[in-house]
Amino acid sequence: MTDEQSRYPTPDPPPVDDPGLPPSQHPVEWRRGRITLRRGQRQRSTTDQRLLDSRGPVDWVHQDPWRVMRIQSEFVEGFGALAELGRAVSVFGSARTKPTDPRYAQARQLGQLLAQAGYAVITGGGPGIMEGANRGAVDADGVSVGLGIELPFEQRLNDWVDIGINFRYFFARKTMFLKYSQGFVVFPGGFGTMDEMFEALTLTQTRKVTQFPVILVGTAYWAGLLAWAREQMVGAGNVDAADLDLVTCTDDLDEVMRVLSEADARRRERDDMDLY
Q1: How do the residues of the chain divide into helix, strand and coil, expressed in percent and rounded to 5?
Q2: What CA–CA distance (Å, rounded) separates 85 from 106?
Q3: Domain spans of the chain?
Q4: C-alpha neighbours within 13 Å on the C-beta side of residue 108
Q5: What pLDDT was estimated at residue 210?
Q6: CB neighbours (10 Å) of residue 112?
Q7: CATH fold of the domain at 73-274
Q8: Region 136-161: what's the mean pLDDT?
Q9: In this structure, what DSSP letter does residue 34 have?
Q10: How wide is the angle at C-alpha 251 spanned by C-alphas 250 and 252, nearest 5°?
Q11: pLDDT at residue 69 tops 90
Q12: How confident is the model at residue 55 (pLDDT cuts 50, 70, 90)?
């Protein structure tokens, strides 16, 4: 007998599942929510027993059914925190960009412009470009949001985040970026930046999101990638040439604001048409 069995003893069911037995002698049924367990599938303890017994096994909190609840809680908390955010733009870029880098200053300036135009600024909440954009929003008395992620190495939310949410799961975090943003502005960055950029492009290409501009800041940095996409992806027929029009690439923050404003106008026009 295991320690768990001795701690949570349960009666054994009858050895034979005989339909002729009276109901009182049928094999013991165990209920786990909507799930019914019988015979060898029954559990030796209940969830509340394991919860209340601090000496009991704890592996269950790392199993998939419990992870589903954690995932659900991340969506609920994210939706609750951001539901009244209003218009917002997500800004992405490298966490490794130093405060002395001109790109940091440019991200800070963009944060100011966005806040002055009435947008909340959403970032991944980390250092570098993200910090610059959050800081700019605070400079202009705007709303500064940071959506952090649990990583194997330590990374805290930067000091310029006013509304901060830390996520365990990347996919829950990505949903918040897309659900509450009216567009993405992407500064030079690494794999994480590329991941967010291509996710947005995929959802725009497949029309899962509409009127959603993706703007790349830094023509020199992005030129090689765009040239490769044009030569290789379009050349091989894997994307249409028109798909590259989903991306605006610029060094001019005024152009960034113009593209966002035009997308807003189209969105309002579409919403007005939907009323009739």
Answers
A1: 50, 15, 35
A2: 24
A3: 3-58, 73-274
A4: 17
A5: 81
A6: 20
A7: Rossmann fold (3.40.50)
A8: 89
A9: T
A10: 95
A11: no
A12: low
Listed in sequence order, the residues at least 6 apart from 125 whose beta carbon sits closer than 8 Å to its beta carbon are: 134, 145, 146, 147, 148, 157, 158, 161, 164, 166
Give the predicted TM-score (pTM) of the model. 0.77
| Whether 128 contacts 150, CB under 8 Å | no
More confident residue, 15 or 111: 111
How far apart are the C-alpha atoms of 174 and 172, rounded to whole Å? 5
| Amino acid code (one letter) for 20 | G
In the chain, the amino acid numbered 120 is A
- Which segment of 126-130, 170-174, 182-186 scores lowest on mean pLDDT? 170-174
Summarize pLDDT for 235-274 with one digit per residue, the tens: 999 999 999 999 999 999 999 999 999 998 888 887 666 6
First-to-last C-alpha distance (Å) of the chain: 70
- Residue pair 158/95 in contact (Cβ under 8 Å)? The answer is no
- Write out the two tokens for 90: 């997500």
